[in-house]
Specification:
mainly alpha; globular; about 80% helix
Length: about 375
């Protein structure tokens, strides 16, 4: 692997690790601050909401200023925000600092696919994007598993210090190893914003945005409230063991790479449809009582999710003929709006109906993604006749 890809993947790993530091230690935070599951879950939903709100800013910014400058700068600022979380005196302060983290995360995540689109030909792009998605899976895995392990030994503040250091290293790699001649648009921010908003007229892209939002709603809903199920009877698992369950994320690294390779032979919409069906089947399986079946269901869920997610961003990049940074940013915005809702609304389902309620809400979101893929992603946009 060349240094350019290594830097791109390192930045992606760091960004996604920082996003999910608190997810596996939510019961610890709830106990430490004396709050319930829904309030502790704000440490997840705050960062996801901030990512959703800020993603649409970074795409046009990178179109105007250049990808490398935006990714390296945002990642450096992310390292500082992550370190600050370690010193939060209250839950409210932690939630605010988590939101600040979320404001910097899309400087990496919303720009990386557009950078790859600039640097790699369409034929090689799906493989590179699949590598980015694989790196995002690795980051999510590290953020959950390693944070839980560190917190079990050093307290809840220690993971933030460790991941801040890792993020600082990633920022340095981005600054030094990404191509210095990446594309800079001369049209300015206004034209970049206008180009981004034009994508909302293309039903194929709107469908892809709905797929991303619903896909992530379901995924984050399951994994945000999973610790509460595993910490309760009949399992009563400790924090360290709960965090180890997130090792199922490793299946996503493999499935995203396989999907990237298959995308050259199988239509993207077909792969997305298969991934969504597998994701729904995995969620349904987690309703089973035996822990082994729950874990198997999580593995199936992860495989399905990252089959679809490995293909959808590349579909967006190749479908958008102009303002590709803006197109990717809109996808990330929709993705994380879905994630924000997925971190909050299934919590209400948990309180009302337990784990079955969480699964029902998340399966319903997956059905929405299936409909968007079937009805919108294949539609040819209308071409306005010349006057």
């Amino acid at each position: 692997m060349d240094r350019e890809r290594l830097a791109l993947y390192a930045g992606t790993v760091a960004a996604y690790s920082d996003m999910y530091i608190t997810q596996s230690i939510l019961p610890v935070l709830a106990d430490r601050f004396g709050v319930g599951a829904a309030r502790a879950g704000l440490t997840v939903s705050a960062v996801v909401l901030a990512v959703a709100l800020c993603s649409s800013f970074y795409g046009p910014l990178s179109d105007a200023l250049g990808r490398r400058r935006v990714m390296a700068g945002a990642t450096a600022l992310l390292s500082l925000a992550t370190l600050a979380c370690a010193f939060a005196p209250t839950l409210g302060a932690l939630v605010a600092l988590r939101a600040l983290q979320g404001a910097f995360v899309p400087g990496m995540t919303a720009v990386s696919v557009a950078y790859a689109g600039d640097r790699y030909a369409d034929r090689g792009l799906p493989s590179v994007v699949a590598g980015i998605i694989g790196a995002s899976v690795t980051g999510g895995l590290l953020g959950r598993v390693l944070a839980g392990a560190i917190a079990a030994r050093g307290g809840w503040r220690a993971p933030f210090v460790a991941f801040a250091a890792m993020t600082a290293v990633a920022a340095l790699l981005l600054a030094r190893w990404l191509a210095s001649g990446d594309v800079r648009r001369s049209a300015g921010m206004r034209a970049a914003w206008s180009g981004m908003l034009q994508h909302l007229r293309d039903p194929r892209l709107v469908g892809a945005y709905l797929v991303g939002g619903a896909l992530f709603f379901a995924f984050i809903g399951i994994f945000t409230y999973l610790p509460f199920r595993l910490a309760a009877p009949p399992y009563l698992l400790p924090t360290g063991v709960i965090s180890s369950v997130y090792l199922v994320y490793a299946a996503g690294v493999l499935s995203s790479r396989v999907a990237g390779r298959l995308s050259g032979r199988i239509a993207p919409r077909t792969l997305i449809a298969v991934g969504l069906a597998v994701e729904a089947a995995g969620m349904a399986l987690t309703v089973a009582r035996p822990l082994a079946l729950v874990v198997l269901g999580l593995v199936v869920l992860v495989v399905g999710t990252f089959i679809a997610q490995a293909v959808a961003p590349a579909f967006v990049n190749m479908t958008a003929e102009t303002a590709k940074g803006g197109a990717s940013a809109l996808y990330l915005t929709s993705y994380y709006v879905g994630g924000t809702l997925g971190a909050a609304l299934p919590g209400l389902a948990w309180q009302a109906a337990g784990w079955s309620g969480v699964v029902a809400a998340c399966v319903a979101a997956t059905v929405v993604a299936m409909l968007a893929n079937a009805l919108l992603c294949g539609r040819v946009p209308r071409v306005r006749p010349a006057v």
